[in-house]
């Protein structure tokens, strides 16, 4: 294939070419195994090495310390919108949500089905263009947890640093900026992210959970919806997405091989950006947000405008930025 299309949509995104090449080369049979990764048992030694490799890779790149479990679940970040309150929102308590965009709004709607939710901040009025300052937060020190969306994919609003939430566990939907920059995992009680933007294909959801929170989980949940099940069975309670975890392992290896330091820094995002910029096709998307648009997004907008001088090198999927300026009321 001589021409590849670079997808900059909000869903699954471009993968590193060396990862696709390696996966392609070993599609029919893993070296020394004689079977595709999709054909081997998820309880085999080979798959054990793969899932352990993926976990070790993420632990290294993200600096995930002891005391945190790393889970590879299914159901996307959308299931986490429900699993978090199911597990951690007792009926006699409330949870604080800081809403900075469309995905945070969805998380609230889902949590409201399971318990009481307070909006510690809701930036809908300003059209979701920034994160709140610490002094704008109405935090309840007895909340079960505080939920944020570290990067609102649709609005492009990103937290540059974590809000101070005291002793209350901070829960973060990190679907669209995980592995894009270093984060201090210790600041979080739980981080979740669909794999499909920065880590691998869709169908795997990464959950990083502080193990001392496990005793707080409500009793009586269905096994598959209880984080303790997956911690205990090391993500192998049922058949996991073996292919997805295999690709995550390759992506981690690729990131490490690129020589990027501990937290992967901007490697994956930069690679996407560079690929995108060397092949501009469409031009002229503009960002009006001043403060909290993620730096990568701002640079990308500028670069595309600068380079879109009529050259047509390749193909680029239309960025799904149509709703970027829309105002959404909660
Ligand atoms: C920030 C954020 N949260 C949640 C989701 C939903 O993810 P999933 O499709 O994995 O359920 C997305 C998807 O784009 C997202 O960007």
Considering the chains and any ligands shown, give keywords for the structure:
binds pyridoxal-5'-phosphate; two-stranded antiparallel ribbon; 8 helices; alpha/beta; disordered C terminus; 7-stranded mixed β-sheet; 330 residues
Word description of this protein:
29% of the residues lie in helices and 13% in strands. The chain has 330 residues and is α/β, with parallel strands linked by helices. It has two domains: 5-14 and 268-317, no CATH class; 45-256, Aspartate Aminotransferase, domain 2. Helix 1 (17-25) crosses helix 6 (242-257), helix 2 (45-62) packs across helix 6 (242-257) and helix 3 packs across helix 4 (102-111). The protein is globular, with a radius of gyration of 20 Å. Mean pLDDT is 85; it is low at 277-290 and 303-330. The chain binds pyridoxal-5'-phosphate. The site of pyridoxal-5'-phosphate has 12 residues, from helix 3.
Distance between the termini: 46 Å
Derived from helix and strand composition plus strand pairing, the structural class reads alpha/beta
List bound small molecules.
pyridoxal-5'-phosphate
Mean pLDDT: 85
Task: Specify the CATH class of the largest domain.
Answer: Alpha Beta
- Tell me the major beta sheet: 7 strands, mixed
**CATH level-four homologous superfamily name of the largest domain:** Type I PLP-dependent aspartate aminotransferase-like (Major domain)
Write the SSE topology.
Blueprint (H helix, E strand, L loop, with lengths): L16 H9 L19 H18 L5 E6 L2 H13 L5 E6 L2 H10 L4 E7 L23 E4 L1 E2 L4 E2 L11 E4 L16 E5 L10 E6 L16 H6 L9 H16 L9 H11 L17 H13 L23
Parallel strand pairs: 2-3, 2-4, 4-7, 7-8
Antiparallel strand pairs: 1-9, 5-6, 8-9
Helix pairs in contact: 1-6, 2-6, 3-4, 7-8
The protein binds pyridoxal-5'-phosphate (PLP).
The site of pyridoxal-5'-phosphate (PLP) has 12 residues, from helix 3.
